[in-house]
Amino acid sequence: MFVAILGVWAFFLRLRSRPLDGSWFGAAVIGELLLLAQFGVGWVLWFQGMGSVLPRPWIHILYGVVAVITIPAAYVYFSRIPDDKVQTLAMALTCFFLWGILLRSAQVVYIAAF
Question: What is the DSSP string of the chain?
Answer without folding.
Answer: -HHHHHHHHHHHHHHTT----HHHHHHHHHHHHHHHHHHHHHHHHHHTTGGGGSS-HHHHHHHHHHHHHHHHHHHHHHTT-S-HHHHHHHHHHHHHHHHHHHHHHHHHHHHHH-
